[in-house]
Amino acid sequence: MITVQGLGRRYGETVAVDDLSFTARSGAVTGFLGPNGAGKSTTMRLMLGLEHGAGRTTFGGRTYRELADPVKTVGVLLDPGAAHPARSAYHHLRMVAAGAGIGERRVREVLSLVGLDDVRRRRAGGFSLGMRQRLGLATALLGDPEYLVLDEPVNGLDPEGVHWTRALLRDLAEEGRTVFASSHLLSEMAQTADDLVVIGRGRLIAAQSVEDFIAAYTRSEVVVRTTDTEALLAGLGAQGATARREGAETVVVEGLDADQVAESAARGGVRVRELHTRQSSLEDAFLAATAEAGQYSAGEYSAELREQRGQERKAA
C-alpha cells in the first residue's frame, strides 16, 4: 500500500499541509478530495519528494527516492503539460523509456492504449488539453507500475475519455495495483473510487470508504407516496419518527428504514403507491464535510439575487 505519515509543508506563515497521515490500499482506487487550496497538489508533490517538508511516504515500504526503478514502480501524472512542446508524443515517451530501460515496443503499446498512436508523430505543443492529458497518462503507465499517483486524470477529457479513464483505473485496481487519484468531478469519483481521503486547509477530514463517508456526513430518507398521508403521519409519529409532507401525496421519513416504514403503513392500513430510500450523493457529503474548510467560497446565489439581476438586465 501507499503509507503517508505526518506530511507537513509551510510557505512562510501559511501552512499548506498540516501533519497529514493516511493509507491507500492495494487493489483499490483511492480518491483524493478537497476544496480549492486544500493542499492536494502540495501533498502529492510531498509524497513523491518533489517538495521538501515534514513526514514520510512509502510505496510498499520504500520512499520514492529509495526505489531502484521508480518509473516501473510508481506511475505519476501531476502536470499534463510536462512534455516539451517541440517533441512528438512518440519521442517524449521514447526519452522517458530510454532513461528507465524500457523498450520501444512498450511505447507503442501505451500510445495505442490511450488512443494517441495515430498522432504519435505530432508535436505535443499542438495537442489539445485532452490529448495532453492522454499523453500524461501514457507516461504514467509506461513502466507498467504497481502504484499510480494521478492529479486530476480526467481534466480536459471528453465524455468518452472520462468513461475510458474510469474503466482503466477500475481495471488497474482489479489487477491488484494501488491507484491514488485526485479529482474535482465528484460525480465521476463516486463511480470510480472505492475509498476516499478528504482534506481541508491541509488537514485530514476523512479517510474511509465512499459508502461510509456518505453515511457519516449525510442522512438517508424514505420517500412514501400515498393518498392517506394523515394516517401515515400519525402512525409514524407514534413511533417517534420524523416525517414531513413533500407535496400533496408524498411523505418523507427520517429515523426509520424502508422496512420499518412499510410495516408502519401496513399496521395503519395505509395503502402505499410507492416507497423508496432516497440516498444523498457524494457531492452532498463532500459539501457537508468541507463546509468549514473552504478558502475560496462564493456568496450564495439565491432566488432574490437572481430576481435582482434579472431586473437590472431589463433596466439596462
Radius of gyration from the alpha-carbon trace, in angstroms: 25 Å
CATH class of the largest domain: Alpha Beta
- pLDDT average, as an integer? 90
* Count of domain modules: 2
CATH superfamily of the largest domain: P-loop containing nucleotide triphosphate hydrolases
Task: Give helix % range.
Answer: 25-40%
Total number of strands: 13
Profile the largest sheet: 6 strands, mixed
Structural class: alpha/beta
The backbone outline, from C-alpha atoms, is: elongated
CATH architecture of the largest domain: 3-Layer(aba) Sandwich
Cα distance spanning the termini = 60 Å
Primary descriptors:
single chain; about 325 residues; Rossmann fold; Alpha-Beta Plaits; 6-stranded mixed β-sheet; 4-stranded antiparallel β-sheet
Task: Describe the structure in brief.
The chain has 316 residues and is an alpha/beta fold. It has helices at residues 40-47, 70-73, 89-100, 104-113, 129-141, 159-174, 186-192, 210-217, 229-238, 258-267, 282-289, 303-315; strands at residues 2-11, 14-24, 28-33, 54-59, 74-77, 147-151, 178-182, 195-200, 203-209, 221-226, 242-245, 250-254, 272-278.
Structure description:
- This protein has 316 residues and is an alpha/beta fold.
- It folds into 2 domains: 2-216, Rossmann fold, CATH 3.40.50.300; 221-278, Alpha-Beta Plaits, CATH 3.30.70.
- It is 38% helix and 26% strand.
- The protein has helices at residues 40-47, 70-73, 89-100, 104-113, 129-141, 159-174, 186-192, 210-217, 229-238, 258-267, 282-289, 303-315, and strands at 2-11, 14-24, 28-33, 54-59, 74-77, 147-151, 178-182, 195-200, 203-209, 221-226, 242-245, 250-254, 272-278.
- The strands form 3 sheets. Strands 5-6-7-3-8-9 form a 6-stranded mixed sheet, sandwiched between helices.
- A hairpin with a 4-residue loop joins strand 11 and strand 12.
- Helix 8 (210-217) crosses helix 11.
- The radius of gyration is 25 Å and the shape is elongated.
- It starts with a strand and ends with a helix.
- The mean pLDDT is 90.
